Amino acid sequence: MTLLPLLPILIPLGTAIVSLLLRGRKNAMRRIGVAGTVLLLMAAIALLVVVRRDGIQVVQVGGWVAPFGISIVVDLFSAIMVLMAAIMGFLVCIYSLGDIDKDREKFGYYPFYHFLLMGICGTFITGDIFNLYVWFEVMLLSSFILLTLGGERGQMEGAIKYVSLNLLSSSIFLAALGLLYGVSGTLNMADLAVRLHSDVPQVLATTVAMLFMVAFGIKAALFPLFFWLPASYHTPPVAVTAIFSGLLTKVGVYSLVRVFTLLFTQEISYTHTILLVFAGLTMVTGVLGAVAQNEIRRLLSFHIISQIGYLLMGLGIYTTLALTGVIFFMVHVIFAKSALFLVSGIAGRMKGTFDLNQLGGLYRDHPVLSALFLIAALSLAGLPPFSGFFAKLILVEAGMASHRWWIVGVALGTGFLTLFSMTKIWTMAFWKPKPQDAPAEVCRRVGWTYWTPLLILVVFTVLFGLGAQPLLALSEEAARQLMDPQKYIHSVLGAL
Amino acid sequence: MSSLILRTTLRLILPILLLYSVFLFFRGHNHVGGGFTGGLVAGAGFALYALAYRVSDLKQLIKIEPQTLLSVGLLISLVAGLIPVLGNKNFLSGEWITISMPRFGDIALGTPLLFELGVYLVVVGATLTILMNLMEE
Fold first, then answer.
1. Which terminus of chain A, N or C, has fewer Cβ atoms within 10 Å?
2. Which residues pair with A182 in a beta bridge?
3. Alpha-carbon distance A297 to A356, whole Å?
4. How many other β-carbons are positioned within 10 Å of the β-carbon of residue A445?
5. Which residues, including other chains, have CB under 8 Å from residue B91's CB and lie 6 or more apart?
6. How far apart are CA A87 and CA A96, in angstroms?
7. Residue A1 pLDDT
């Protein structure tokens, strides 16, 4: 099966092409859109099974051998991320069926949705750092379009900040790539891993590492480069926000994890400590920003940032246990965070507003929605028995094992503040009686396309809390692979 | 803009530009050129046409919607990448067949040419889409 590792790119591409050809036919586009994500989901599951059974999968595109051509490399971490992208792709696509209006569909929502998925999957499976840049661009271009589609005033304002900051990050990324190629003479990540640890002077490697940290840090919304995120994420329809929040910043985190485990491990005490410090600052500023917000979607956007801090905390600690925590946390936060966004979307659709001051009485009118919100919110705050508890537990344990007490303190404090700001949504939107000046209720019920994805996400977050063991074992296996780059290098270059 | 001079020159230049784009397309296999440059030159030719006449005239000239060109191009490139997979090679490998034609001798046709054809169509489609949207304002 030389095609299987490539399917996460090819399926969204094929789907996008078919729906471009069928543009104008609304129902056909919608069906193709969903069918494409189902196929992607099946391919992603097959890929994870194969990678777990047979080890790292490598395809040399075009038959060009490793350091010369572009390698596609799927290790367990990549396979898990592809599966997460596929699950989110599928669920948000169903949510989009109701949430995306006719005009946006007409202007190609579904084709670009799949181009976005293609870019995301591409970044997860590529084994070539320049190719990584290309997939970033594919992803960003599609995200620019999805962000501005519809052309509302607020969207444009958000898009300008989003586009300019991301272009800046791309140019830093490109400059870093040029320097990296200059000092090492290769772009294949496995080959780079070998050369950066032998031929290249340590000081040059660390300098380039810092550039990569800034470039990926902007995409991952790391402190102090996160301000584009809350400025733009609340402007497009909730379906778009959900897929962005679920996957885009995670792509930045994935890239950071990839390069800081495979390529830049020369001066761990320096580079990874910086990562750890910024992780702590990201957590705190994110959650403090969230506490000050009154618009649900903005509030949740700030939470994305603080959760990114947790992910990078694991990378900064850099032990097998910590990376296990990163992967577990990644799975948890994608589900929990997206569930919260979908709740806000449903609430907004029913009540016609996203403003906490104008919302109210949701608990009385919609008990099921309230229960789903509560589960996702408590999970995000890290309360047992939901997935967030174990995710944080592992990270905290890893922090204590490596005697980094201060980051443990920050992580726990942030968890507490997260709970506080979730309580704020709960009291203001759900418990508080409906305020006098609230806008007229738009609709009392929303269809199954809204409920099903939310329900599945919440079920996942409960499942991974009550039965954390399988996911934990899988994350640990993936973390071991990350901590032992020799395996990765050998699978790519071994044939030479 | 309707300038008689431009329209008259266009009658001479457009065929040359289109021929030149095809030339660049084939030349690109081993030399400078290729689907991307070829497509851009063809796009430039159409841009000139739209300047000399109107966008609606350009639409009549091309008949096919640019977005269709774009998607068909993408499809062709994807298929070109998938053909070698059928022959149990890696995605995007080169797969060749030789056709003997009287007078021309043996011609080796490969998937890279097909791939470039896809690129050509994507570039023409994209240029025309941008052009028509901008000029219709």
1. C
2. none
3. 10
4. 8
5. A2, A3, A6, A10, A59, A61, A62, B81, B82, B84, B85
6. 14
7. 52
Q: Which residue has the higher pLDDT, B105 or B84?
A: B84
The residue among A1, A6, A7, A59 with the most chain B CBs within 10 A of its CB, best to mutate, is A6
Three-class secondary structure of residue B127 per DSSP: helix
Alpha-carbon distances of A445 from A40, A102, A140, A346, A451, rounded to whole Å: 31, 20, 34, 9, 10
Q: How confident is the model at residue B137 (pLDDT cuts 50, 70, 90)?
A: low
For residues A342 and A454, the answer to whether their CB atoms sit within 8 Å is yes
In whole angstroms, what separates CA B114 from the centre of its chain?
A: 11
Q: Which residues contact A392 (CB under 8 A, 6 or more apart)?
A: A310, A329, A382, A411, A415
Which tops the pLDDT comparison, B132 or A445? B132
User: Which residues of chain A are modeled with pLDDT < 50?
Assistant: 496
What integer pLDDT is reported at residue A495 of this predicted model?
A: 52
The verdict on B64 touching A (C-beta cutoff 8 Å) is no
Average pLDDT, stretch B30-34?
Answer: 86
**Mind telling me how many Å the CA of B40 is from chain A's nearest CA?**
20
**For testing the chain B interface, which of A20, A68, A126 should be mutated: the one with the most B CBs within 10 Å?**
A20
A&B contacts, CB < 8 Å: 44
Q: How many residues does chain B have?
A: 137
A133, β-bridge pairs: none
The DSSP symbol for B31 reads S
Separation CA A154–CA A159 (nearest Å):
8
pTM of the model: 0.93
pLDDT value at position B30?
82
CA A294 – CA A274 distance, rounded (Å) = 32
Residue with token string 């400590």: A273
Q: How many whole angstroms from its chain centre is CA B25?
A: 8
Pick from B71, B88, B90: which is nearest to A21 by CB? Answer: B71
Could you tell me the residue ranges of all domains in chain B? 4-135
- Amino acid identity at B76: I
A11-21 residues labelled b (16+ CB within 10 A) or e (exposed): bbbbbbbbbbb
CB burial of residue B100 (10 Å; 0-12, 13-18, 19+): exposed
Structure tokens that stand for A214 in this block: 């800034």
ipTM score assigned to the predicted complex:
0.89
What backbone torsions phi and psi does residue A57 show, to the nearest 5 degrees? -100, 130
